Predict the structure.
Amino acid sequence: MAKKIKSGNGISKYNRNKYIWAYIFILPQIIVFFGFSLYPIVMSYVYSFYDWSGIGPLTNFVGLKNYTRILTESSFWNAFGNTFVYTAGFTVVSISVALILALVLNNPNLKGRGIYRTVYFLPVVTTMAIIGIVMQNIFGTQGFFNEFLKAIGLIDQSISWLSNPILAMILLIIIGSWKEIGITMIYWLTGLQMIPREVYEAARIDGAGSWQTLRYITLPLLKPIGATILLLTVVSSMRVFDLVKTLTEGGPYFATETLELYIYRFAFAPDGPSQVGFASAAGVVLGLTVFIISLILGWVVYKVSGQKRKPLGGGIK
Amino acid sequence: MKKKIVVLLSAFLLLMILAACQSEEAEGDSNEVTLELWNNLASGSTFFPKLIEEFEAENPGIKIELNNVNVESSDAEYQAAISDNSLPDMFITDAFSMNELVDLDLVHELNSVFPEEAQEEYTEGVFDEGNTRIGDNIYLFPIFKGGTYMMYYNKAVLEELGIDTVPETWDELLAVGKEVYEKSDGNTEGLIFGGTSGWLVDAFVQLMATELSPESRMDYVNGEYSFNNEGNVETIEFLKKMLDENALSRLTLETNSTVAREYFAVGRTAFLIDGNWTGQLLEDENEFSDWGVVQLPTKNPDGKQYGEFGVSSNDGMFVSNNTEHWDEVEKFLIFLRDNMYEELVNVGEATIAKEFDLVDGEAPFEQIEDIQDIFSTVSIQVPNSLTVNPEALDVQLEVLKNGPDSSPGEILMGYLTGQVSDLEGELESYESAYNKAFDDALEAHESVTREDFQFPDWVPYEPYTEEDHQ
C-alpha cells in the first residue's frame, strides 16, 4: 500500500495535496486538543508544586508540600472515602438495575417498549444540577416525599433524609443511579442485540428454559460489554460533582463531600484565600486514582473480551 | 476551477469578517468613554442602575456598563479576568483580599477621591490600615462598614399565637420557642437559621460565644487562638438543647440562609438569625414587612457581645490598575461618594460606610434604625496586628490556608446532626491545629512575632482605637 503512494521522488502531487488538506482539516481539532485538554492537564501538574492562589505569577515553589499536606489531611481522606462509597453504590445499583430493565425491554413481545425506553432515558438528558435542586425539594424535611409517607400512614414524623449522614449518602447514590440508568440500559441493550438469535434457537431446541438461557447464554455473552460498562460507570461516578453540590453541598458535616467537591472548595470557595495549588495537587491525586482504576478495569475488559471468542466458537459447535 | 472557487470563497469570507470588525468600530462614538463595572452586591442591582442613569445624564460622554456578577461563580470569573489581564475598570469582589490585589499591583489607589475632609464624614475606623488603606494609600472605595448578625422576629406569628415576649436571653428564647411549637401543634417552630451557610453559622456562633468568652477566636491579651472555651461550648450546647426540645426547627439542618429567610417570611418559624442586610431582603425579595429585630439573645440578662469591626474587600469597590480612563473613573467615584449613600439608605441598607446621621436618605422601612443601633452596639474596633506590623497579614493568610479544615460553626452542625459526640474534644483538636498553624506561620516569617498579636491593655467590649494602638 505504501509503495502505491510513493512514486518517483516520493509522494505524488495528488497524494501530497490530499495529505495537506487532511492536516488542514484536523488542525482545528489539534489546536483545541492542545489548548483545552493537554495544556490544562500539564498545568494542573505544574500548579500542584506551587503555593498559588489562582492569580499572579507562579513564584512560590513548594515542591511536594501540597502532596504531603494532602496525605495528612483527614478531610481529604474523608472525601476520598466518600467518593469510593458513592462509586461502589452507584456502580452496583445503576449496572444491575439497568441490566434488569434492558432484559425486560429487549423482549420483542413487550408492547410499547419504545415508550418505556424513552421514559427511562429522559433523566439522562436532564441537567444534573436541576435534578439536584428538584430532589432537594422533594426529599427535604417539608418535602413531597415526607408528606406522601405521612399521608399513607407510613410515618408520623418527617424523616431528615438530607441531614442524616447515612440517608443522605444513600439518597445521593439512588438519585445519581436513577439519572444515569437510561444510558447504561442503552449499553446493555446494545450488548443484548449483538447476541446472535441462532444461539437462543439452539438453546431452545436443546430444551433450555428462560432461566437457563439467561444463566448460561445471555449473561456469559454480555461479559465483554459488561466489563466496558463497568469501566465507564466507575470512571464517571468517581468524578461526581454537580449532584452533590446541589443536593447536599457535601453535608451533613462533610458526610457526602466527594473529591471533586473538595477540590472545588479549595480552588473556588474556600473560607480563607483560594488555594489553587493545593486543589491542583488533590486533582492530580484524583486523576491518578481514576487512571489506575481505569488500567485495572481496562485489563479486566481485555481479559474478558479475549476469553469471549474462545467459548463462543466452541459453544456453538 | 474548484481551486478558484475555494480561493474566492475564502477571500469573500475574509472581507466579510473585516467589514464586520470595521462596522463595529464605526458604530461607537469616538468621543464616548465606556466604563465597565462588575457588581456582586445583592442590592447593587437596584441602586447602581439608578445612580448610573443620573451620572450618565450629567456626563453625556461617559457610559457605565453594569455587570451583576453571580456571587457563586465570581471567584472563577475574577481568576480568569486577572489571568487574562481583563479586569473591568471597577469591580466589587470577595474573591480576593485587598492585600492580594495590591501585592499584585492590580488595583489603583483612590487617594484623590477621599481627601481628609471627605474621610471625616465616614464612620471611625473605615479608613484604618487593613480596612480600606494599606500604608499611605486608600485602595478600597468603602460602601459598607462591615456587618453583624441579629435575630429577626415575625410579629404576625407571635401575635397570632398570643405571645408578646421577644426573647432577650437564652432561657426566654427556649421557652418562647417551645411555646410556639406547642401552641401551633408543631405547624410553626421557634428559631431557624441557614445551617448549610457555613459563613453565617460560624459568624453568629462566634458572636454569641463572646458573651461568656470574650477571648473567643483571638485572645488579644495572650496572642493566641482560642476555640475550646466556655463561650463556644455553652453556645453550641444551648442550640442543641433548642433542637432537642423543638425550639429550633429541624429545617435548620438542611437549609441555607436564603431558604431559611423564606421559611421565616411565610410564618413557618417565629425567629430567624441572619445578617444586618436581611431586613432589606425581607422587604424587597420576600415582600414581608411585619417583622422586628433584636440583638442575639445572651445567656445572662445583662450579657454583652461584640463583633470585630472591619471592612472587607466585599464591602467596597476597587478600580483596576489597567483602566485606560482613570479621569472618567475618578469622576464617577466622586459622584458615587456624594450620592451613593443616600441611595443605599433609600433601598434599606443600614450599615453604610458614611456616618448614618449625615445622610439624607429615606429608608423604606422603620426597622432600619434598630438594625443601625444593634450594629453600633455590637460591632466594635478590636486590636489590629496589621497596625503594629503590616507584615502580620502574611501570617494571618498562612494560618487561614494551613489551619484546620473545619470551624466551630461546622462543629455545631456536626453536633446538631449527632456526627460530633465529643464536643470539647473536637473544639480542642481544632484549637490545637489552629495554634500549630499559627506557630508554624510565625516561625516562617521572621519579621513578625507573637508580640505583634498581643495587646495586654485590651479591655473586652471596649473599642480599641487608633490611639490605643499607638
About this structure: Chain B has a mean pLDDT of 90. The radius of gyration of chain B is 25 Å. Chain B is about 45% helix and 10% strand. The longest strand of chain B covers residues 33-39.
